């Protein structure tokens, strides 16, 4: 066995080298598996033409992404297989099961037929299994339930039949079960209620029957329960559904349900309720629903009683549909009179075909209200002012996409290259900036609103912030609603600050594409899960070769730490040392976090801060105090009244968790003490805010030090010290902490340096502290990916 030269100098790395083989090649069983996979596919566009030449990992096979470093067995391993949108048909080969290190398996939007091979259930590291948008049939193998690391299962829009396997209860990390638009039948397994991480359960448009499991209300993280268009005839909506703790959307349209509408007033974040087209009876519960309600659709039932007065107190309401019921009493004009319509807001009130007999208040709603009353006794009251305005049959208005910031109206048409790949950037602050966009077909699968205009700006802000772009760089070219899903065609433009370059550079394209394809956007209650329909690389981007990115390399090394968690501290430190040495050619400097005062951290226990104290410490969360931004929220530098300088992590809306869970986590964190862990000073849980207060690390992150921006390189001694320190911190977490903590997100930006340049590990034990950050740090953050293959793979021309 030969040590690879790049380990050079680091004697400690020796024990690692024992495992390294001389020339990197893909594991033979994975090579033969890929060959078998290809054999069973029909590839009319010949997208996989180079799958027959050379070695998968070293000869750039289309859609194959490999580990960059040799595994413990001396081979390279396939980590991702992503061949979406390639017009592939044929079937999935059972040999897929031999790709034993695979983390992402993505065959979305092809024409595959046949059944899902049970062997896939044996790929234990699998995180994303994406087979939606094919023509798969047959029933699901029980073995899928053994994918204990699976985060996301997307099988929607196939024709898979049979029951949902009970074994799914063993997918103990799964957050997304998207099985909608198939032919699943039978009872929904109540066992699913034992998956503590479940966030989105989409089972709509199947042939499911039986009853709605009352236990689902125990799912601590569940945000969306969508079961529309199934047939649970004779079943009722369990009263326990009023106890959901985090639910945002409950959609049970056309499910054959009987009985009463349950009282859902205790669900704090409920925003979207659709119980239409059932056989529900009795009155609507009068208790006030959440202030977040945007949509209430109870139409086409047999409800009686009056409109609850509490409906006049729903400030975010967009849609209230009560048509085709047996409701009586007056129409409450307070519903709109009490609302302040922000720009672009509107309210749709559909009350047709009931027994409403009078109006309480004045019937002169503002233009932003659409009111429909036909088919009610009130329409026969000719003395009532204006009533005929609302009793005719009018067609619904359409949503209009008006791009208010479009600055291109007066730009000369001939000045922007007319080859279809370039266009004026609509919202560019610099008028007539001509650039080539990336084009993305995108769909919100289950948003928690029913009218987009008021949320367009927030959406643009959310998406561009998550991509680290400026808001003008995103343009929503078109959008349309499709049965409650919101399809969009997005264009992303390069920044005009980059010397007015009219294209993204390769690494930017790669970064953006990866972000969409790995589902690492921060979770959002408002927007819910998304689908990537296509990511088209045209014109100047068509020839992009995806190359190794240094980021991937570093992550790759780091994943080794996680995987080899049991190995000796020496080995770990060696890896970190290599990580640092690799960037040796680069320069470093201290970045923004420059500070002289010493942090006093030896606090007995953990302090409970008030919101006021936090606001004071950060000058009211002034932007100038912000030192970072994570999925969980913003990080501020703050100075407490006793002059202690601290880092304050403030949870964003959407990342908040229940108080009990929050305090439990604090308790857990407070037990972790080690000189190589960033220590927790306190927390704040007040005024709907959740913050964590840590000791401040004046010398920033290791990532800063290694970044290209830096001026001088850390010397060898320092590198070694950082490596050893980090290793000790990690070792403590893994082996000495009680209970042990699995870091899950070790990366250079989570290794911080204190004033004496000692390294400390940050962000440990936060797995559950960021519940709404759906997928932040699941697979890809830890995976070494050498991105290879064709960029156009996503959408062949
Ligand atoms: C694979 O891609 C890399 C980077 O583009 C290139 O340097 C290398 O020559 C390619 N290998 C083969 C066999 O095409
Ligand atoms: C590939 O798929 C696209 C859309 O899915 C279709 O328009 C096109 O005709 C297909 N091409 C071939 C060669 O099958
Ligand atoms: C889906 O599968 C069922 C049988 O499981 C079959 O009856 C039906 O025709 C299939 N639908 C489509 C669109 O292929
Ligand atoms: C879950 O897995 C365990 C062992 O891995 C197995 O014994 C059990 O039957 C599984 N549960 C279900 C419901 O399949
Ligand atoms: C799902 O199925 C329903 C009913 O068949 C259909 O109306 C809807 O368009 C489908 N949705 C998708 C995304 O295919
Ligand atoms: C409302 O409907 C329920 C159930 O159908 C019935 O028992 C009740 O008498 C009705 N109430 C009124 C006021 O009609
Ligand atoms: C709505 O307005 C009415 C008067 O128009 C008022 O009596 C009622 O308290 C208001 N409700 C809320 C929740 O503001
Ligand atoms: C009503 O909607 C229009 C167009 O969306 C908007 O310009 C206007 O400000 C809204 N009116 C009110 C009273 O909010
Ligand atoms: C912007 O305005 C121009 C010219 O009026 C128009 O051609 C273009 O479609 C608009 N773009 C968007 C995204 O609204
Ligand atoms: C990508 O998806 C968008 C949105 O559905 C669609 O408008 C566009 O035509 C698609 N592009 C390609 C190349 O399929
Ligand atoms: C559009 O303009 C408004 C105000 O003019 C601004 O607040 C908003 O950020 C702009 N949006 C974009 C995408 O630039
Ligand atoms: C495989 O094909 C893709 C394009 O389909 C190309 O980018 C890549 O370089 C090819 N690799 C080899 C080894 O030919």
UniProtKB/TrEMBL annotation:
It is a single-pass type I membrane protein. ATP binds at residue 649. It catalyses: L-seryl-[protein] + ATP = O-phospho-L-seryl-[protein] + ADP + H(+); L-threonyl-[protein] + ATP = O-phospho-L-threonyl-[protein] + ADP + H(+). GO terms for cellular component: membrane. Keywords: ATP-binding, Glycoprotein, Kinase, Leucine-rich repeat, Membrane, Nucleotide-binding, Receptor, Repeat, Serine/threonine-protein kinase, Signal, Transferase, Transmembrane, Transmembrane helix. Residues 621-797 form the Protein kinase domain. It holds the Pfam family LRRNT_2. InterPro entries: Kinase-like_dom_sf, Leu-rich_rpt, LRR_dom_sf, LRR_N_plant-typ, LRR_R13L4/SHOC2-like, Prot_kinase_dom, Protein_kinase_ATP_BS, Ser-Thr/Tyr_kinase_cat_dom. PROSITE patterns: PROTEIN_KINASE_ATP (PS00107), PROTEIN_KINASE_DOM (PS50011), PROTEIN_KINASE_ST (PS00108). Residues 1-21 form the signal peptide. It comes from Hibiscus syriacus. Its EC number is 2.7.11.1. One of its GO terms (molecular function) is ATP binding. It is an enzyme of class 2 (transferase). This is non-specific serine/threonine protein kinase. Belongs to the protein kinase superfamily. Ser/Thr protein kinase family. It is found in: Membrane.
């Amino acid at each position: 066995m030969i040590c690879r030269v790049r380990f050079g100098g680091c004697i400690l790395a020796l024990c690692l080298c024992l495992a390294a083989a001389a020339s990197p090649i893909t594991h033979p069983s994975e090579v033969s598996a890929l060959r078998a996979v290809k054999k069973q596919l029909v590839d009319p566009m010949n997208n996989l033409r180079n799958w027959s030449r050379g070695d998968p990992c070293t000869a750039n096979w289309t859609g194959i992404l490999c580990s960059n470093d040799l595994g413990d067995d001396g081979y390279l391993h396939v980590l991702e297989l992503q061949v979406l949108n390639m017009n592939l048909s044929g079937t999935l080969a059972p040999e897929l099961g031999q790709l034993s290190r695979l983390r992402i398996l993505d065959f979305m939007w092809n024409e595959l037929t046949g059944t899902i091979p049970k062997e896939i259930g044996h790929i234990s590291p699998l995180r994303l299994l994406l087979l939606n948008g094919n023509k798969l049939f047959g029933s699901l193998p029980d073995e899928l339930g053994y994918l204990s690391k699976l985060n996301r299962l997307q099988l929607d829009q196939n024709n898979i039949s049979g029951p949902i396997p009970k074994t799914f209860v063993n997918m103990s990390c799964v957050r997304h079960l998207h099985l909608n638009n198939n032919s699943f039948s039978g009872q929904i397994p109540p066992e699913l209620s034992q998956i503590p991480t479940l966030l989105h359960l989409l089972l709509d448009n199947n042939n499911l029957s039986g009853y709605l499991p009352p236990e689902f209300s125990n799912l601590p993280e569940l945000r969306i329960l969508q079961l529309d268009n199934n047939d649970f005839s004779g079943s009722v909506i369990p009263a326990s559904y009023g106890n959901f703790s985090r639910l945002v959307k409950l959609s049970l349209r056309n499910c054959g349900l009987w009985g009463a509408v349950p009282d859902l007033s205790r669900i704090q974040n409920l925003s979207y309720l659709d119980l239409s087209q059932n056989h529900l009876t009795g009155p609507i519960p009068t208790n006030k629903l959440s202030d977040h309600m945007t949509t209430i659709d109870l139409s086409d039932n047999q409800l009686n009683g009056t409109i609850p007065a509490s409906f006049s107190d729903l400030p975010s309401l967009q849609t209230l549909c009560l048509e085709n019921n047996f409701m009586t009493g007056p129409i409450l004009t307070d519903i709109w009179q009490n609302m302040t319509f922000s720009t672009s807001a509107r309210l749709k009130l559909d009350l047709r075909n009931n027994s409403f007999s009078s109006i309480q208040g004045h019937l002169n709603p503002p233009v932003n209200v659409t009111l429909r009353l036909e088919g009610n006794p009130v329409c026969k009251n000719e003395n009532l002012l204006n009533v005929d305005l609302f009793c005719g049959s009018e067609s619904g208005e359409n949503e209009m996409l008006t791009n208010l910031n479009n600055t291109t109206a007066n730009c000369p048409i001939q000045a922007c290259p007319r080859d279809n790949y370039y266009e004026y950037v609509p919202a560019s602050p610099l008028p007539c900036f001509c650039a080539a966009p990336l084009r993305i077909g995108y769909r919100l699968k289950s948003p928690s609103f029913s009218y987009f205009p008021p949320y367009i700006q927030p959406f643009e802000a959310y998406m561009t912030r998550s991509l680290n772009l400026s808001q003008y760089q995103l343009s929503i070219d078109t959008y349309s609603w499709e049965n409650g899903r919101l399809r969009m065609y997005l264009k992303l433009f390069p920044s005009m600050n980059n010397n007015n370059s009219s294209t993204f550079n390769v690494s930017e394209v790669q970064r953006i594409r990866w972000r969409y394809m790995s589902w690492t956007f921060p979770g959002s209650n408002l927007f819910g899960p998304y689908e990537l329909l296509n990511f088209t690389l045209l014109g100047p981007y068509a020839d992009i070769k995806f190359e190794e990115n240094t980021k991937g390399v570093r992550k790759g090394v780091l994943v080794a730490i996680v995987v080899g968690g049991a190995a000796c501290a020496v080995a770990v430190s060696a890896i970190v040392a290599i990580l640092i040495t690799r960037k040796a050619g680069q320069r470093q400097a201290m970045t923004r976090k420059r500070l002289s005062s010493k942090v006093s951290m030896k606090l007995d226990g953990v302090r409970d801060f008030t919101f006021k104290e936090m606001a004071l410490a950060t000058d009211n969360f002034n932007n100038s105090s912000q030192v970072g931004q994570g999925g969980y929220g913003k990080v501020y530098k703050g100075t407490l009244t006793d002059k202690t300088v601290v880092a304050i992590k403030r949870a964003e809306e959407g990342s908040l968790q229940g108080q009990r869970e929050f305090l439990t986590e604090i308790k857990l964190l407070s037990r972790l003490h080690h000189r190589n862990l960033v220590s927790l000073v306190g927390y704040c849980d007040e005024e709907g805010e959740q913050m964590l207060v840590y000791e401040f690390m004046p010398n920033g992150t290791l990532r800063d030090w290694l970044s290209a921006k830096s001026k001088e390189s850390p010397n060898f001694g320092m590198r070694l010290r950082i490596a050893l320190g980090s290793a000790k911190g990690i070792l403590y977490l893994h082996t000495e902490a009680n209970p042990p903590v699995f870091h899950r997100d070790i990366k250079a930006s989570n290794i911080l340096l204190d004033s004496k340049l000692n390294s400390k590990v940050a962000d440990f034990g936060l797995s559950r502290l960021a519940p709404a950050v759906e997928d932040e740090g699941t697979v890809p953050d830890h995976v070494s990916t050498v991105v290879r293959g064709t960029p156009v793979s996503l959408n062949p021309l």
